[in-house]
Every structure is written in C-alpha cells, then in structure tokens.
Amino acid sequence: MTDTTDFEAKRDIAELAVERYKQGRLTRRGFIAAMGALGVLPAFGQRAMAQTKEIIVVNWGGAAADILQEVLCDTYTAETGIKVTVDGSGPSAGKIRAMVESGAVVWDLCDSGAGSAIILEQQGMTEAIDYSIVDKSKVLEGTAYNNGVGNYVYSYVLATNPKLLGGAVPQTWEDVWNVKDFPGMRTFRKSVRGQLESATQARGVPLAEVYDALGTEDGIKASIAKFRELRENIIVWGSGSDSQNLFLQEEVAIGNIWSTRAHLLKDQMEEGTFNVSFNGGVIAPGIWVVPKGNPVGKDEVMKFIAHGQKPELQVEWLEKIGSGPINPEAAALVPAELAPFNPSSPENLATQIIYNDEWYAKNQVSAEEMYVDALIN
Amino acid sequence: MPRVHEKVSYWMLVLPALSIMVCFYILPVLGIWEIAFTEPETGVGNFVKMAGSNAVKTSFVITFRVAAITTVGCLILGYIVAYAISNFATRLTPLMVALVILPFWVSVLIRSFSWIVLLGRSGLVNDALIHAGMIERPLRLMHNELGVLIAMIHVMLPFAVLPMLTNMRGISGIYVQAARSLGASEWTSFRQVYFPQTLPGVLSGALLVFVLSLGFFVTPALLGGGRVLMISEYITYQIQEFLNWGLGSALSVALLVATALVLLISARFVNLRATLLERK
C-alpha cells in the first residue's frame, strides 16, 4: 500500500499561522517564540535533564506548532500540571517507523494522516487507541481507527468570487463545469487529491456514490475526461498560497481549494467578492497516532488526546488557524459568523464526503498521470 | 627554479575549476543516471514507462516548442539591439550595454513575479487597455503559453544580445563601405556583406538561448498556470509529489540526451568550434 498522507496539506496548515500573525491575530511574542523554536529540538534536551513526566507532541512545524502548544498543550498543563511540549519536526510515517525500529522512541503523539495511520498499524508501529479513555463519540464518524483517531479536519471546498461572475454563483460542481452560464477561470489543485471527486460529481454522480463511480478504470477515465473538457478554463494551484493568490488577484472566479485557505480569504477579500460552499466538498481528517513504546506511557497520552477533544478547545483551534473541529459537539459553540466556514458543522458535513485514503492508496499514482495528460495533452 | 613543463602548468591552472566541476557536477549527474536505471528496480523500466506516457511526450513537445519560439524571439529582438548598439550608439554604447546586462542583477524569480503584476487579469497592461477603451474584457496574457513566452524572451534576451554584440563589434565597417562605394544598395550591402559576417554571433546566441530554455524552470512554473508543463517542472512534480526519483531521474537523463542531440545536429550545420570557441 502506498502512503497517501497529504504532507503538503499539513505543511500548509503550518504556514497559515504566519498569515494570522500578519493579520494581527497572533501575538508578536507568540510568533517570535514559535519562530525561535523552528528547526531545533529543545524537547529532547530538557527531557534528559529533568526526569519529570512530559508529553512530546509532534506536528508539522511552522507557527502551527505554536497554536497547538497554546490551544491544547498549555491548557492541559494548567489543568494537570503535566508538561506538554510541541515539536514541529514533521512526523512522517518513515520517521515514526525508524524511531520505533531503532528502539529510541522520543515522541509520544504524532499528527499523522489516515493513510499513514493504516500503514503504521499494519506494520505494528503504533499503539492501539484506548477508547475507554478517548471518547469515540467525540470524533467524526469514520475517523476512529484502531491505532489512530481524528484530531482536526480540513476540506476541499467550492470557492467563488460573485463579483467576477456577475452575481451568478455556481452552487454545484455541475455548475462549475458549465462554462456558458458561469464564464471565468477556475482553479484546481495540481494533483487529483480532492479534485477528482468534483469532476465525478460534474458527471452527474450523486455525492454518496462518488468513490463507487471511481472504482473502475473506466470510471476514473470518465472523470479525468471532465478535466480535459474544462481545461481551457483551468489554472492549476500548486501550494495553498498559490490558490489564495489566484483569488486575491482576481485571476480566477471559481476554485476547488482548502477550507483553511478559504478561512483566510474570507477576511482578505472585500465584502461580496468571496463565497465558500461545502456542497459536494471532500473532508479530510488529521489523525493522532501514538508510536509503539512511547516514553511517557500509553495512558498518559490517551488522557491528553481526550483533553484535546473538548469542544471549546476545538473551536479555538478553528478560530486561530481554520482547521475544523473533529468533535461534532463543537459545532454548537462556533460563533455564528464562523459557522459557514466550519468544515464539520452539521450543515456542512451533510453535503460532504470523507476523503477515501484507501481509494488513493490504490489509484492515485495512475490517476495523477492521467490528470496531467488531460490538462496538457 | 625548475621549469614545469608547459603542458603541466596549463593543467594546473585548470585543475581547481575542473575538480569542483567533477565533484559537484559530474559525479552528481552520474548519480542521477544511476538512479534512473536502478530505482525502483534495476533495468530500463523507467524509460519504458516514460516512452509509453502521453503526458511526457506532450511535455517534451511543449518544452521544445517554447524553447524554439523563445530563441527566434530573442534573436530577432536581440539582433536589432546589438546592431543598434554596435553601429549607431557610439556615445551611448556603455549605457546601452549596461542596460542589457542590468537584468542579470535582478533574480529571475523577481523578474517573473514582475510579469505577473504586469500581465495579470487585473494587471497593469489589462487595466491600461481597459481604461483606454481599447478592450472591454481583460485579455488572457498569462497562465498560458503566451505569458510564458513573453517572460522567457525577456529573461533570455541578454544571452542573445551579448554574443551577437561581441561579434558585431569585431566587424570592421570598411566592408559595408566598400560595398556601398561599389554601388550596392543599403539593403543589399547589409544582406550580402554585413549579415553573413554576423552569423557566428547569431548562431552562438541561438544555441545559448535554446539550450538554456530547454531546462528552464522558474518562469514557466510561475506564468504557465500549470498547463505549460515543461520537462523541468514535470521532473519536480514527479519527485516532490510522488517521491518518484526513478522516473524523475530518467526524465532528466532524457532531457540531457535531447540537449546533447541538439548540439550534435547543429554541429552538422555549424562549425561549433568556430562559433563557440574562436569568436573574435
């Protein structure tokens, strides 16, 4: 099985905090502290010195490490007295495996993806999640694995600029493919991730049947053909900031972009020039995994995961960086003006499907090849 | 003092540069060749896959087309500039040469971003045209091949101007004067007397621009909108998105071979030694 964890998406979330800082939502001190911590591993040194209980949580760095520290870790320390430190060195499946195999495990909890979580479980590199401590009902359905549990979500959403479209805003992916009624440039990711699902819906396939329709080679080809059909109107985005720039510079009127970027754009674009619809969107969860034989012990980590499930903390996470709460209960606490941008609100959940890692593990490589071919050939 | 043999002393002068090239260029390139034939398994699998892929073929076609058009554009514009500098702008020559070289001081990245500011949908060019009432809707000047070509011609222009300029400044005005005094028209004397003398400069400019364009990355990636996928960008895509070092390396080997072929074929028509080495 191929590891299909979308590391780029994770790094992108890390980058977002920089923009929050620019907008004045992060304190200068917090920002500098996070930047100072970049690229060093202070956690290890401190750990060896003080033999006290400490949980090391690893994510993808950047200033997102700071948000994680502030929102989940410091609050846990305040509550329990147990120190929790974020290390932003990027817990790829390869690194976790190397660490476990070498017997020198220094990480307690890692921000991974469903693809990695499944592989690591098969290889026996992770601890089982203890669902007597971690509450299964406090994560989205389908994100509670044996050896991994959801921690936040982000979505691929339909973003539009009504001003460029003359007020006529596409509501469905079929509309997006309707160039006659909705003229203008579209942007899609330079990868089939979260994009092929849109093209499949544009074929008229109902949302719930998208991955079934993509189950055969012919099904994939038919969806790819939709991109070939639309390609004269497509500009491709490579990184999250690309997609943001395309909207800011009014290069595109419509796009399939990350909800986390949409979260920034809603504040940056003028009133009435930016809309987000989760209709037909694809929602992807981040997954906590615990490396086998983690130093602080399994129970301590489980308690921390449970702490992170608290709705109010999840909402704070959404406010600060745009990652959606994994806990469905959090939706009720989200401020009204943010609710439309919350990937996991009940209204938005109802219109999305969950990113299917198994499908990607099986088909992504060949689909990517066809996708590039459709765009340029 | 014992006299070092002349040949040995020449080699010693070349040695520092040569060793850097071998360590940091030739060896890594050989490493890439090795990866191309060994990952994921030993054999020519990567090349078979490459030959079977339509996307790769199209990408090669795009690469050569963009490089060729860029070369022609640079030669036409560059020839005019070089001609004007070497024949007319006597007092202004230093200034003109400085203006040609000036872009080298600005990073390619910045120059490409500047084109984004100019050519965008709500960029300076489109805004100016709309306000002047010449167009109603913004023109699509970038995120397509046109944008890539405009920016690439701009970036590559100095590489075309400089060899031609060196060549033209070495041409004595006497020949054209002689032709004119013998009754040739201005056009005939240019075409039959001046132009043939500038050919070595034109050809070395052409080769330089073409070969550099083949491997160009930044500008197409920024201005192509993802649909002008040149080979170098395709290589990045394979390696970054899929960690597919095998295919990525095979592609770069193919690009290298293709470039070498261009040089070989042009060697059949042009005396490369005279063009590149003995320019006077």
TrEMBL record, chain A:
<dbReference type="GO" id="GO:0015888">
    <property type="term" value="P:thiamine transport"/>
</dbReference>
<dbReference type="InterPro" id="IPR006059">
    <property type="entry name" value="SBP"/>
</dbReference>
<dbReference type="GO" id="GO:0030975">
    <property type="term" value="F:thiamine binding"/>
</dbReference>
<dbReference type="Pfam" id="PF13416">
    <property type="entry name" value="SBP_bac_8"/>
</dbReference>
<dbReference type="GO" id="GO:0030288">
    <property type="term" value="C:outer membrane-bounded periplasmic space"/>
</dbReference>
<keyword id="KW-0574">Periplasm</keyword>
<keyword id="KW-0813">Transport</keyword>
<comment type="similarity">
    <text>Belongs to the bacterial solute-binding protein 1 family.</text>
</comment>
<dbReference type="GO" id="GO:0030976">
    <property type="term" value="F:thiamine pyrophosphate binding"/>
</dbReference>
<dbReference type="InterPro" id="IPR006311">
    <property type="entry name" value="TAT_signal"/>
</dbReference>
<protein>
    <submittedName>
        <fullName>Extracellular solute-binding protein</fullName>
    </submittedName>
</protein>
<keyword id="KW-0732">Signal</keyword>
UniProtKB/TrEMBL annotation, chain B:
<dbReference type="GO" id="GO:0005886">
    <property type="term" value="C:plasma membrane"/>
</dbReference>
<dbReference type="Pfam" id="PF00528">
    <property type="entry name" value="BPD_transp_1"/>
</dbReference>
<dbReference type="InterPro" id="IPR035906">
    <property type="entry name" value="MetI-like_sf"/>
</dbReference>
<dbReference type="GO" id="GO:0055085">
    <property type="term" value="P:transmembrane transport"/>
</dbReference>
<feature type="transmembrane region" description="Helical">
    <location>
        <begin position="62"/>
        <end position="85"/>
    </location>
</feature>
<feature type="domain" description="ABC transmembrane type-1">
    <location>
        <begin position="60"/>
        <end position="266"/>
    </location>
</feature>
<keyword id="KW-0472">Membrane</keyword>
<feature type="transmembrane region" description="Helical">
    <location>
        <begin position="243"/>
        <end position="270"/>
    </location>
</feature>
<feature type="transmembrane region" description="Helical">
    <location>
        <begin position="12"/>
        <end position="33"/>
    </location>
</feature>
<protein>
    <submittedName>
        <fullName>ABC transporter permease</fullName>
    </submittedName>
</protein>
<feature type="transmembrane region" description="Helical">
    <location>
        <begin position="146"/>
        <end position="165"/>
    </location>
</feature>
<keyword id="KW-1003">Cell membrane</keyword>
<feature type="transmembrane region" description="Helical">
    <location>
        <begin position="201"/>
        <end position="223"/>
    </location>
</feature>
<comment type="similarity">
    <text>Belongs to the binding-protein-dependent transport system permease family. CysTW subfamily.</text>
</comment>
<keyword id="KW-0813">Transport</keyword>
<keyword id="KW-0812">Transmembrane</keyword>
<feature type="transmembrane region" description="Helical">
    <location>
        <begin position="97"/>
        <end position="118"/>
    </location>
</feature>
<keyword id="KW-1133">Transmembrane helix</keyword>
<dbReference type="InterPro" id="IPR000515">
    <property type="entry name" value="MetI-like"/>
</dbReference>
